[in-house]
């Protein structure tokens, strides 16, 4: 798995995840999220377009990140999950609790209160 972080001029952050997100690799994502969630008002989009597989440890990282961001008035949004991952997020009930967008651009453009936070 590969994780990269891009900060934007408006202080939003895009975390891009590629590969399998599972028990062996989820700690990399959790560590990355921990670092970007330390911002005063975290606004994070996780680009899932390159995720091929995700297990419960990956899902847990999304939920923990969402809760931490919301606790300080920020947000965490998921963007561009493939069909399988989108179905998984919906099946386990994470949607609509977590905001999921078809693309990174749409996740970044949405108004803060429109994501349910």
From TrEMBL:
Residues 10-111 form the STAS domain. SUPFAM superfamilies: SpoIIaa-like. It holds the Pfam family STAS_2. GO terms for molecular function: anti-sigma factor antagonist activity. It comes from the Bacteria. Belongs to the anti-sigma-factor antagonist family. PANTHER family: ANTI-SIGMA FACTOR ANTAGONIST TM_1081-RELATED, ANTI-SIGMA FACTOR ANTAGONIST TM_1081-RELATED-RELATED. This is Anti-sigma factor antagonist. It comes from Couchioplanes caeruleus subsp. caeruleus.
